[in-house]
Amino acid sequence: MKKKQLEMMLEKLEGFGRPSFYREQYATPASVAAEMLFLAAMRGDLGTVCDLGCGTGVLAIGAALLGARAVGVEIDGEALAVARRNAEKLKVDVDFVRADVSRLDLMGIDTVVMNPPFGAQKASAGDRVFLRKALQTAKTVYSLHNLGSEGFVRSFVKPGTVEEIYRIAFPLKRCFEFHSQDVKVIEVELYRITCESVC
Ligand code: SAH
Asked: What is the pLDDT of residues 138-193, one digit of tens each?
């Protein structure tokens, strides 16, 4: 499958019905998800994949479309219901689990792919909790962050190592009232982090 084909398939997916501002529910745009997953596929990282805070499932479903065995973990039942419908729509098998990431204990995962909440709101666990859990779960982690997160990520993931940082254009759609433009393109950073023995 080509990257553009994956993007077009992921564009068909249903988004958050009523995105929760407090849980920082921003769906990863199809173009960003396709880019992330192709980078992971090129490195042979799409064996058994877990999407932490999977929301409506775009990363987990995209990974499954590229041949991964995929698991999606999400705290919000409504978002998970959408994720399940989305997987059915694209006829892929994904194990969706309703759980709080901070209480999770998953075995047998090769790679975590995630677009974690940044932690600006109290109701979401925030990127520290997600990063910690990701490194406890898998030896390889792909995680999206705001521009300029390098210092924080590099020191936080120790003894894990940041292997690569990719800059990705992220079309931010208007989904909350205070966003004034319909689409604004920002840049985000995708980190590939490894930790030899699961950290
Ligand atoms: N991964 C999705 C959604 C990103 S938004 C995508 O790429 O489109 C972040 C998601 O993390 C939201 O769906 C939010 O509900 C979820 N979340 C926030 N705190 C969580 C927690 N403690 N445990 C599990 N999921 C959580």
From this structure: 999 999 999 999 999 999 999 999 999 999 999 987 665 565 667 889 999 999 99
Give the chain's domain count: 1
Residue 199 lies in a domain: no
Atom 1 in ligand 1: which residue has the minimum CA distance? 54
Q: Does residue 86 line the site of ligand 1, with CB under 6 A?
A: no
Domain span at residue 25 reads 3-194
Instruction: Give the Å distance between the CA of 24 and the centre of ligand 1.
Output: 7
> pTM to 2 decimals?
0.94
CATH number at residue 166: 3.40.50.150
**At what angle are helices 30-42 and 3-11 packed, to 10 degrees?**
140
Residue nearest (by alpha carbon) to ligand 1 atom 3: 55
C-beta of 26 in contact with ligand 1 (< 6 A) = yes
Mutation test of ligand 1: which of 74, 137, 141, 176 has the most ligand atoms closer than 8 Å to its C-beta?
74
Residue 53 CB partners (closer than 8 Å, separation 6+): 73, 74, 75, 101, 114, 115, 116, 117, 125, 130
Write down the residue that tokens 């529910």 correspond to: 25
In a domain, 54, yes or no: yes
